[in-house]
Amino acid sequence: MEWIKWLGEHFIGMFQAGGETFMGLVTGIVPTLVVLLTFTYAMMKFVGEERVTRIIQFAAKYTILRYTLMPILSLLMLTNPMAYTFGRFLPEKQKPAFYDSAVSFVHPVTGLFPYANAGELFVYLGIANGIQELGLPIADLAVRYFIVGIVVILVRGIVTEIITKYLAKKDGTDLV
């Protein structure tokens, strides 16, 4: 009978711990996320949707901007998973590479802009907690993630575009 008591205490304890974690998020990070998201949408409205569209179309013309600026703006403005819709500005042959770049940036963006991909926030906070326990500043971690993320998405975008062109040529597919 002792095992039933133990099971009952630990079963409800799991939910109590989850509730405490949830309340910590509600009183901690959630208000920050709401304010950041509101700010981003306000900036988009202030700048104008037409101007934002023209900026994205300009960036789509150049490889470096296509695989750096476009994924960054898409995640900051539309968040994950809507960010991938920026691919509509690209021809079919570049869409796989853009998607690869954008999906590769959902974690690095989280440290500075946590609203952009709330699903990755728990991963980042786990790493940040370890950094804090070492007595190191998490701001440095967030900036480094962001910078390394930009380099990674550029490389992935270029490599994926090359692979896509190769496979299309090998298959005899004419991607426009």
UniProtKB/TrEMBL annotation:
Superkingdom classification of source: Bacteria
InterPro entries: PTS_IID_sorb (IPR004699)
GO cellular component: a single term: membrane
GO biological process terms, semicolon-separated: phosphoenolpyruvate-dependent sugar phosphotransferase system
One Pfam family cited in the UniProt record for this chain: EII-GUT
Record key words, sorted: Membrane, Transmembrane, Transmembrane helix
Parts of the chain that traverse the membrane: 22-43, 64-84, 142-159
Keyword Membrane in record: yes
The name this protein goes by in its record: PTS sorbitol transporter subunit IIC
Lineage start: Bacteria, Bacillati, Bacillota, Bacilli, Bacillales
